[in-house]
Amino acid sequence: MADPRRALVLFSGGQDSTACLAWALARFAHVETIGFDYGQRHVVELECRREVRERLAERFPQWSAKLGEDHLLDLSLLGQISDTALTSERAIEMNASGLPNTFVPARNLLFFTFAATIAYRRGSNVLVGGMCETDFSGYPDCRDNTLKALQVALSLGLDSAMTVETPLMLLTKAQTWALADDLGGEALTDLIVEHTHTCYLGDRSQRHAWGYGCGVCPACDLRRKGYEEWRAGLVSS
To answer: Contact at 8 Å (CB) between 110 and 93?
Structure first.
């Protein structure tokens, strides 16, 4: 039986958040989505969000009745105060801090805080995010301890239990492909290949076996390697 709780998925239109959306739809009685326009360089992902939601509803009728409203928030101020390769035209490289310059400080902390505001008003008490500690970036706001602490802070600040679920936290990208396959088979993995967006540069002019992207940025490289490892059957259990 489905978990009777209502969930709100942080949904960018990328591979990871699509896998998380499918994961939530397979578990919870009602699922809504939320996205953020923060001046990201790969703003094309916002167009992909609509397409992915529509395709999911069409291809998975068992999920369509559970898929509720979508919310898109204007967080352009975040892009204005950030100085990163995700919010401006610059080469992607590592900073002296050891973090890539694609790190948008506090981005996920803000995303979850705004999501919790919407969830509270909408009667949802589960927030689902595609953060992954095994990602190449090591972003500090994607780490398990950060999000566990944030769950406590949100619950205390709202005086209402708010659960933060991160189903991809300890998975490799190949395991994320495998999870999608387990959840929705070829129909879901094909949807992810064709309609989601991961490329940091926002390039959808080049179609690869694993999807669209420039093929050289870190996000494309990680997606490609994960796809190839999954297809080769090299995913660890």
So the answer is: no
In-domain check, residue 237: no
140 inside domain: yes
Residues 6+ apart with CB under 8 A from 89: 41
Closest CA to 123 of 204, 37, 201, 30: 30
The backbone torsions φ and ψ at residue 128, rounded to the nearest 5 degrees and listed phi first, read: -120, 125
Each residue's pLDDT tens digit, 100-122: 777 788 889 999 999 999 999 99
Name residue, tokens 């064709």: 194
Distance CA 31, CA 122 (A): 11
Taking only the tens place, the pLDDT of each residue in 85-100 is 677 777 777 777 777 7
SS3 at position 107: helix
- How big is the chain, counted in residues? 237
How many separate domains does the chain show? 1
Confidence label for 137 from pLDDT (cuts 50, 70 and 90): low
3-class SS of residue 55: helix
171 is a domain residue: yes
CATH number, residue 85: 3.40.50.620
- Domain around 85: 3-231
pTM, two decimals, is 0.92
Percent of the chain predicted with pLDDT > 90? 74
Distance CA 102, CA 142 (A): 13
Query: Is residue 29 assigned to a domain?
Result: yes
Inter-residue contact 105 to 142 (CB < 8 Å)? no
